[in-house]
Amino acid sequence: MTEKVIEVNSLVKKYGNLTTVDNISFSIKKGEIFAFLGPNGAGKTTTVEILECLRTATSGSVNVLGYNTKKDDFKIKQRIGVLPQDFSAFEWLNVYENIDYFAKMYPKHLNVNEIIETLDLEDKRNTLFKDLSGGLKQRVGVAISLVNDPEMVFLDEPTTGLDPKARRDVWDAVKELKNKGKTVFLTTHYMDEAYYLADRVCVLHKGQIIAEGTPDDLINRYGGGNTLIIRGCDPEARNELINAIPDGTVEGNDVLAKLSEDDAVASISVAASIINTGDFTCEEIYVRKSTLEDVFLNLTGEKLTKGGK
Amino acid sequence: MSGFTSDIKYTLKSFFRNKRIVFWTLFFPIVLFLLFGYIFGSQSDSINLYYQDNDGSQMSNSFIQSLNSTGAVNLKSGSDMDLSQMLKDGKISAYLIIPSEFGQNVLTAQHTNSSSSSGIQIYYDKSKSSSMAVVSIVHQVTDSFNMKMSNTQQLITVDSENAATKGMNYFDFLLPGILAICIMSAINMAVGGITHLRDIGLFRKLSTTPFTSMQWIGAKIIVWTTIVVLSLVLPLVLSWLAFGTHPNINLITVLLVIAGTAMFAGLGIIFANYAKDSESAVTAVMAITFPLMFISGTFIPVENMPWFLQYIANISPLTYLSNGLRSSMITGNYGDAVTNLAIVGVLGIVLFGIGVAVFNWKED
Fold first, then answer.
1. Which helix (H) or strand (E) holds A115?
2. pLDDT of chain B along its 364 residues, tens only?
3. Is some CB atom of chain B closer than 8 A to the CB atom of A15?
4. In terms of pTM, does the model score above 0.90?
């Protein structure tokens, strides 16, 4: 049986009359990348900060690496690594000095030069933190979260505000953590990030867990199926296609149809046949897979939005 | 190296790399010292007194020599000058006219044992603070001159007044005030440091490590004290080399520096704890410390200010620090220095204690 490194039962966090985290339970297995996916105000960061011993739970039990967060926070802190949301290091220290500063906070820590090498930061070793690009700053943040060789790494919105290239760099660094056997707890409001990185995803909405599973599992269960899209059709083709394909609809010059698992191949064959036999003009035909965005939309009726606390 | 020493080392490193902060902390006090020293110091450092001797007798010459011998004024002959116009133009603060037949009238009065009908005339500009000193000096010299003529033995009164005037120049007065302002910068360091690190999420990060907030505060009090002491060195060296000031640095001075740093750092920690963000915190602190800088007996004596400003000065902690430093370093009034040290010491213990008690980087 795989060891559980985090166990959360009936966790509640209230600020006055406002309930930020509403009776949630989940567990994380050793070596997996686990993602909290949810929009602004879903309670992701509050939950994660309770696990990091930064906040205190109103009720419920939280165990991290076998220790209770209320009683054994000092032991937990020695064994976890954290990249907080919107993290910034010391502007007037260089990359080496920033990593070294945090390394000295732990009784036992890794060699700073080795961490720099692992995160591919050798070229920027002597560059002041303030002069780094956003992606490199986050990579330094990841490096700092590893100084104590943690068993569990928390990454809170690690790619918010980064350009696509920088996001990819951070994703590679996170994948590398998994390869090294670390357990990673990721919070994000980017569905593509959760899909690409996570082994398991927990969808949070208004402080509650509304779905949990592997990304593909969630998409299959809640994504609403794939969509057949036939773009740029002439009017005659559109008429023929919506009559022939079940649940077909027209949007502009395009014909769209939701595909169920049973009739997907049949619907595609019918569409291709109509276009070929009728000698109609259509620009392209393809199948758009459902995403975690669709999952969230179908479960909540809302879109995932930028931000996230 | 532990987290404690690492924090001290890297905080000092960050400080010295930030040239803007280094200027405002270490060099700006020098700018203030020179600026205020030359603005106000030039008024009181030496008082020029122009005179016209319309008599030219041995007696008038003797009077001028008596005036000159006090050393309290720089006597300058204005025989060919329109002194009246110069006074109106604000170029001089006072001038003296010795009327013709002054010597003859004095001798006549001496022989007949009656008052001289030939008085010395002094014209002065009441708006200039130095003019009152000139009038006072001339009166004192005249009195002693009269006594000398009538063979009395009360010349000492004038001499002792002169000694007091020459004992302390404006740079002597200003130096402790500048040092007190340097110590007050601990409040800016505390407020700026805490709110900035909180804003950029560094406290959130630090609180997930085994390093504790008490260790952090301990490291910071060492860093802030080190920077405060460094900021004191430059004005001290400058005043010694350039203005010949010889401040007496003793145990009371050292204790005042430590207590003052604790007092202002404590205030800063309390402030930072309740401030929303670094920008509003720094602005609020500036709004308070900037006026205090001018009305706490740092640049001008509290007694010379209007009553309502004196009232504020009396509740300003900077006043007691400034007065204590002046008494211990310059005037040697150790009784007053100890009284001020007691006030600053109690405030330092209380405010720093409250600051440490309320400081928490956990976000609950």
1. helix A112-118
2. 688 999 999 999 999 999 999 998 999 888 888 888 777 765 544 577 889 988 888 888 888 888 887 777 788 888 888 888 777 766 677 888 888 888 887 777 777 766 545 578 888 776 555 666 677 777 777 777 777 766 543 332 323 233 333 345 678 888 999 999 999 999 999 999 999 998 888 998 999 999 999 999 999 999 999 999 999 999 999 888 887 788 889 999 999 999 999 999 999 999 998 888 888 888 889 998 989 988 898 887 777 678 888 889 999 999 999 999 988 998 888 888 999 999 999 999 999 999 999 998 876 6
3. no
4. no
Q: Are B225 and B349 in a shared domain?
A: yes
The verdict on A72 touching B (C-beta cutoff 8 Å) is no
Residue B226 lies in a domain: yes
Say if the Cβ atoms of B14 and A91 lie within 8 Å.
yes
The domain tally of chain B equals 2
Looking up tokens 């392209």 gives A284
ipTM above 0.85, yes or no: no
Q: Kind of pairing, strands A254-259 and A248-251?
A: antiparallel
Q: Do the strands B94-98 and A208-213 form a parallel or antiparallel pair, or are they unpaired?
A: unpaired
Strands (E), chain B: 47-53, 73-77, 94-98, 121-124
In a domain, B363, yes or no: no
Which residues in chain A (193-232) have CB-CB distances under 8 A to chain B? none
The Cα B211–Cα B219 span in angstroms is 11
Is the CB of A54 less than 8 angstroms away from the CB of B204?
yes
Q: Would you give the DSSP letter of residue A287?
A: E
The helix or strand, by DSSP H or E, that contains position B247, with its residue range, turns out to be: none
Please give the residue range of the domain that contains residue B61. Answer: 46-167
Separation of alpha carbons A85 and A189, rounded Å: 12
Within-domain flag for B215? yes
Tell whether A86 lies on the interface with B, counting CB pairs under 8 A: yes
